[in-house]
Amino acid sequence: MKLTLGPVLFNWPTLAWSDFYARIADEAPVDRVVVGEVVCSKRSPFRLEAAGAVVERLERGGKEVVIAALALPTLKREIVEIDAAAEGLHLIEIGDVTALAAVAGQPHVIGPMFNVYNEATLSELAALGAMTVCLPPELPMSSVAVLGKAQASPELEVFAFGRAPLAVAARCYHARAHGLMKDACRYVCENDPDGLEVETLDGQPFLAVNGVQTLASGVTVLSGEVADLRAANVARLRLSPQTGDMVAVAQSFRDLIDGRIDAAEQLARISALQLPGEIVNGYLHARPGAVHVSAAS
Amino acid sequence: MELVCPAGTPHALRTAVDIGADAVYCGFQDETNARNFPGLNFSPEELREGVSYAHRRGTKVLVAINTFARAGGTRLWQQAVEEAVRAGADAIILADIGVIGWACRTFPEQRLHLSVQAAATTPAAIRFYVERYGIKRVVLPRVLTVDEIATLIAAISCEAEVFAFGGLCVMTEGRCQLSSYATGESPNMNGVCSPAEHVEYRQEGGELAARLGGFTIDRYPEGQPAAYPTLCKGRFKVHGKAQHIFEEPASLDTLPLLSALRKAGVRALKIEGRQRGKAYLTATVKAFREALNALEASAEPVVHDLGRLTEGGRGTTGAYRKTWR
Fold first, then answer.
1. For residues B233 and A185, what is the distance between their CA atoms, to the nearest angstrom?
2. 3-state SS record for chain B
3. Please, are residues A40 and A211 in contact by the beta-carbon 8 Å criterion?
4. Does B72 touch chain A (CB under 8 A)?
């Protein structure tokens, strides 16, 4: 089983973003790193200058680099950017059909915000050149198992760590929370490197807002499930960057996969890290995504 | 512009046909469509009768099979497509690339529409569906402004349908898993959002708490009417302050925009609400029928106040105006 580090979904300052990848390049036992802005095209100009160096650094560190396309492109310049990326040297990870149209017929990767629920869709995507498909977070194990047995299947990836991306919209909730409009947002999303906390009126953590994206407040941590996923032909686990020690997260997943530690030890190690929310894993167990199903139950 | 009206039941279908729908849309009694509610929708036989009733009066029937097929269960979605074809549906509204690919290869003559749940927002995405699967019409997600819709329509070779009235998805349709995060059931997988069996109202110290999957979606002081706890219309605490972080309870109402939508090249207007009652159906269809007739005749449109039919008594033009974002 391989490890994929998903794209940084949040608006981290460019310097922090570059430093993060430098450390990943040097220390994280991940095989593939997906780099690029997925949520809001207003953020990318700041990182553009740093991106070349980040990609080079990661590749020198022995990582395979995949370039992420925007998840909800609507503006002309956003589509032009995807077309340009599709002509580049790297595999592209796409999040919607606009980007799929740009990469159709050439090898590419399907990200977790693309709707892949069944073997018929998987086979359509394989015919279009999908090499890896990261499944939507809400998919239960029963579906993963069926997809793992599908014929002519691209390799499957499952979202294993981080705040799961749940929705994307035209409206920027970060701007809205600050009484601003999207076009004059003042980049307020930069204040929340793990997303803006959305609690219920009773003070219960619920969701996290990240610009036009809404994520789970709970942090997905797959642990005991990893053995089942491997048995179901899942080839990769996706770790989605949060603040905190992603190298340690990657190391504990690597150790679990390689049999150096058991699931309880892996979960204990990750629980000891600074996480932005409570640990959840309900989706894979066909339960609400917000719940945690313990190994014993 | 064609007026496309909701038919949650055979009775609603006849009502909509009788009062001036150009087309009605409906679904089967299972998770193959995005309004999989108890007591709603059609058996294959009811659909055949409905199509026959509608066709006698010159009204089209569009069948929505617009959820994403369950892994290992795709046959159910294929059977739904077969039943719709057999019933003589004028078009089938699909969302899942897997189902679309199968339908276009199995029934090359059948007219296919792309559901809003497919979230095709750009000329490139729509061209992909048109060229690869022969899609004849796209239902546009509620994320575009009227100007963007006009630009988009100029760049595509199929018809475009937009939502004209009704419940407003705040998130891009087909790309939202908030409901399953709280309840385990979602629009994409189960054809439901914020399902009623996960809703709980509880009186707590002079307030009514409305919960979904155990999460408080809103609280109401005594005497104030409580809205259904649809997740994205809830009040939540952000920076310690209670607010409708995603959207106020409001319904889309495009009556003020009809002329602009026609100018943009929109071919069809869809009224949301297969789950709504007869009063809603009658009032909305009549209002839009009259407004469209007036528009065609270049007459001053009769202004209807549909406020009482909207959520929270509030209408919004939503994403159609840029300031909404």
1. 22
2. CEEEEECCCHHHHHHHHHCCCCEEEECECCCCCCCCCCCCCECHHHHHHHHHHHHHCCCEEEEEECCCCCCCCHHHHHHHHHHHHHHCCCEEEECCHHHHHHHHHHCCCCCEEECHHHCCCCHHHHHHHHHHHCCCEEECCCCCCHHHHHHHHHCCCCEEEEEEEEECCCEEEEEECHHHHHHCCCHHHHCCCCCHHHEEEEEECCEEEEEECCEEEEEEECCCCCCCCCHHHCCEEECCEEECCCCCCCEEECHHHHHHHHHCCCCEEEECCCCCCHHHHHHHHHHHHHHHHHHHCCCCCCCCCCHHHCHHHCEECHHHCHHHC
3. yes
4. yes
**Residue in chain A nearest B244 by alpha carbon:** A177
| Adjacent-strand bridge partners of B204 | B207
A276 interface with B at CB cutoff 8 Å: no
Chain B residues whose CB is inside 8 A of the A170 CB are 142-144, 172, 319, 324-325
Question: A interface mutation test: which of B31, B102, B122, B147 has the most A CBs within 10 A?
Answer: B122
In terms of C-beta density within 10 A (0-12 exposed, 13-18 middle, 19 or more buried), how is residue B222 classed?
exposed
Q: How many CB pairs under 8 A join A and B?
A: 211
Q: Is residue A184 in some structural domain?
A: no
Using the Cβ of A153 and the Cβ atoms of chain B, whether some distance falls under 8 Å is answered with: no
What pLDDT, on a 0 to 100 scale, did the predictor assign at position A74?
75
In a domain, A241, yes or no: yes
Low-confidence spans in chain B with pLDDT less than 70: 300-304, 308, 311-314
All structural domains of chain B: 2-168+250-324 (3.20.20.70), 178-243 (no CATH)
Q: Domain of A93: which CATH number?
A: 3.20.20.70
Q: Which residue of A has its CA nearest to B152?
A: A74
In this complex, the residue of A74, A183, A290 whose CB is nearest that of residue B181 is: A290
pLDDT digits (tens, 9 = 90+) for A54-88: 999 999 999 999 999 998 887 778 877 888 877 88
Q: Which domain holds residue A88?
A: 2-162+219-274
Contacts B215 to A, Cβ<8 Å: 200, 204, 206, 290
Residue A145 domain-assigned (yes or no)? yes
Whether residue A106 lies within 8 A of chain B, CB to CB, comes out as no
Of B122, B181, B243, the CB nearest to A98: B122
CB B292 within 8 A of CB B1: yes
- How confident is the model at residue A110, as a pLDDT? 98
| Paired strand residues for B238 | B241
Per-residue pLDDT, B324? 74
- pLDDT at residue B141 in the model: 86
Least CB–CB distance from A286: residue in B175, B184, B246: B184
Q: Is the ipTM of this complex over 0.90?
A: yes
Residue A280 pairs in a beta bridge with A220
Instruction: Report, as ranges of residue numbers, the positions in chain A whose pLDDT lies below 50.
Output: 297
User: Are residues A120 and B102, on separate chains, in Cβ contact within 8 Å?
Assistant: yes
Smallest CA–CA separation between A285 and chain B, in Å? 10
Q: Is residue A158 part of a domain?
A: yes
Structural domain tally of chain A?
A: 1
